[in-house]
Amino acid sequence: MEKILIIANPSSGEKEATEISKKLVDIFKQKDIETTLYETEGEDNFQKLTYDALEDGVDTVALLGGDGTVSEFVTQVSDLPYRPNILLLPLGTTNNFARALQAELDLDDLLAKIEKGEMVERQTDVGKINEGYFISTLSAGSLPEIAWQTDDELKEVFGPFGYILEGITSINEEEEFDLHIQTETEDIKLEEITLVVIGLTNSVFGIPTFFEEGDVDDGQLQLYALKTSNLLSEAASLAHHIFPNKYENKTDDDELSYTTSFKKASIRSSKTLNLAIDGEKGPTFPIELDVLHNHLTFFVSLTEQ
Asked: What is the pTM of this model?
C-alpha cells in the first residue's frame, strides 16, 4: 500500500466513523502511506470517486461503515475494469458481510492489527441481479420489508435478531406466492411460499448459521424458501433453519421449506412483489442471477476460529 482512499460513513452504527478515521490516518501516516479521506453524504458517486483515486495511484480503499455502505460501494465499483483492494472496518449495527468474512469486529483490536500489519487478503464473490450487484442477500416475502423498515431502535437493541423478531410476527400477514426457478441444473416450481431468501454467503441478517454451506468465495448462491402453514409451524421451521443444532425434528422442517444452491438462475413469479437487495428495496420478479467468482479482494484481520 502506497496510497489509500478512506471512505467513512459518519452515520453508521454508533457514529464512530470520524474518530476511527482519524486514528486510521495516524496509523498510515506513521507507515508513510498517503491517505485521502472522504466522508459520505448520502448521494455518493463511489464509481467516479474510486476511478479518479485509481488514476491517482490508489490501490486500496478503506471502508468505514455498515452493510449499506459496503453494498453501495461494491455495487458502484463492480463494473470497473480494475477494482481496488478493500480494507473493511465494520461500523454498522449488524455487520452481516464482515461476519461472513469472519473478520475482526472489535475496532480497537482491528486498528492494532492494522498498525502491526497483521492483515490477510481474502477474495470474495459478488452477486449479479439483472444489471445490478449485491454482496450479501436477496429476499422476498415476509422479511424484505422488515429489512428496510425495521425500527432503528429495535436494530440497536436486538441487532440481527431485530429483523427476525419483526419478521416472524409478520409471516402470517403476508400473501403467499409462487416461484419458478430455472438454474443450470434444475427446473423448480414452488407453490404457496411465504418467504424466500437467497444468500451469497453463509450469513443473513448477521446470523452466520443461516446458510451453513455458504461462503464468500464458493461461487454459489444458496436459496431457502419457507412454505405456507401456520404461524407456529413457520416460525419453528425458520428457527430450525437458523439454529439446526438446537432442533432434532427435521421432518417437519423438510415439509415446510425448500433449499438448493446454484451459480446462475432465472426466477419469476405470477405475483408482483419487491425483493430486498442487501436490505434495501429492489426490483420485482422476474430476475436473472449470476455469481462473479472472486471478483473483489478484501484485507481483513481474521478472528480466531
From this structure: 0.84
